[in-house]
Amino acid sequence: MRRIQFIEFHDQPWFPSLLRDYVTDALQFGFSLFNVYAPVVPLLRRAIEATASQSIVDMCSGAGGPWLRLSKALDSRKSSADAPTLQICLTDKYPNLAAFEKVRAASAGRISFYPGSVDATNVPRELHGLRTMFTAFHHFLPDAGCAILQDAVDAGEGIGIFEITRRAPSTIGLTFAFVLALFVCTPWIRPFRWSRLLWTYLLPILPFVLLFDGIVSFVRTYRPPEMLEMVDRLTANDYHWDAGELPTRFAPITYLIGYPRASSREFMR
Known about the structure:
Layout: H1 17-34, H2 41-51, E1 55-59, H3 67-76, E2 87-92, H4 97-106, E3 111-117, E4 130-134, H5 142-155, E5 159-163, H6 169-185, H7 194-202, H8 205-219, H9 224-232, E6 239-246, E7 253-260
Parallel strand pairs: 1-2, 1-4, 2-3, 4-5
Antiparallel strand pairs: 5-7, 6-7
Helix pairs in contact: 6-8
């Protein structure tokens, strides 16, 4: 199946911010409910150890992504009890500040957020740490994807890209099940909003956007060889890169991890 570049409604600048926040809230709820990114913990731990980093800068965080659960899992697997707590900073081009604040409050000091707009191709240099991106890299055209990777290289920061979406007919069918689950569970999404019910059940804009954007996400997700082609285009690239697909009970998670060779040990799968 060839990659198809098309738009997703909720990442367009003209899409209403209220509905965008409701979409990212729903995705956050679903990812947390099913804990879909739990299998990447060993990959993240090895990348953190390789870069000797104690901070994460998460890009395109939506409503917080998988970090509330991942931060607990990573903290529970610290090499020693007195090791510093990993600090995660959430960022987004269209930050869902209410959701960020909710995640921060529930994180026991592990998670903070950057309140301004952050372009993943030009991350503010004051934000230091291993850069991560979950279920968002497919939004970008190849040139923009290269720019994201190049910006990390220019800043000397490690980067990890993770996608639960996969460009295959068998996994596209998961979108329907995922959206149906969110449709049923909408009354339990917090914070509770009557308007969320309005846009879900009476005027079902949210289920339509989630279904449409979900299908588009699958058909434009990059495969590992395509991401490595972007890596080949980078300049001043004295980095170690690893790309692959991690099997899970839902669908394989596509990943790309890179970090400076000079300041880290070899990444071992």
